[in-house]
Amino acid sequence: MPRSRFSGSLSTPKVDVAIDMGNPLLNLTVDGFLKIGTVAATRVVAEDAYHVLRKGSISRNSMEHTLKKMCKEGAYWGTVAGVYVGMEYGVERIRGTSDWKNAMIGGAVTGALISAASNNGRDKVVTDAITGGAIATAAVFLNYLT
């Protein structure tokens, strides 16, 4: 049975957290989930803080709404990221090479899976697969530029 280990470090401006699940696929998937889930939750806090400042008041109800929204968005986008990272890693292992095609396939499969899990129609699933593949491929190409 694999053991999990948690370690972290803080050095400005980067926070690095590593979780060792005993399997590279699980490590990458959990890492993607946590990083992007945190980004999504932070986005909700920033958005809702703006609305509170604009309105000029805060209530317990709005705080509860913000917390629920943070959890929902963090879990959703963290899951999307975890699925994508896991798919890309799996494709890389199957193909035996690391290139932009892995990102394209991983993005397309992730887009299709998330769309299908949301009970979308066939045309929407195909559109989301194409979009996921295109965004993932563009991200890899942008990383090559920097």
List the helices and strands and how they pair.
Layout: E1 5-11, E2 14-20, H1 24-55, H2 60-95, H3 100-117, H4 122-145
Antiparallel strand pairs: 1-2
Helix pairs in contact: 1-2, 2-3, 3-4
Report, as a whole number of angstroms, the end-to-end distance.
Answer: 40 Å
Oligomer: single chain
Q: Tell me what portion of residues adopts beta-strand conformation.
A: 5-15%
What's the tally of helices?
4
Helices and strands, in order, run as EEHHHH
Report on the biggest sheet: 2 strands, antiparallel
Poorly predicted segments? none
- Kindly name the structural category: mainly alpha
Shape, per Cα inertia axes: globular
Strand order of the largest sheet: 1-2
Rg is 18 Å
Give a count of the beta strands, DSSP E runs of length 2 or more: 2
Helical content stands at over 70%
Overall pLDDT metric: 89
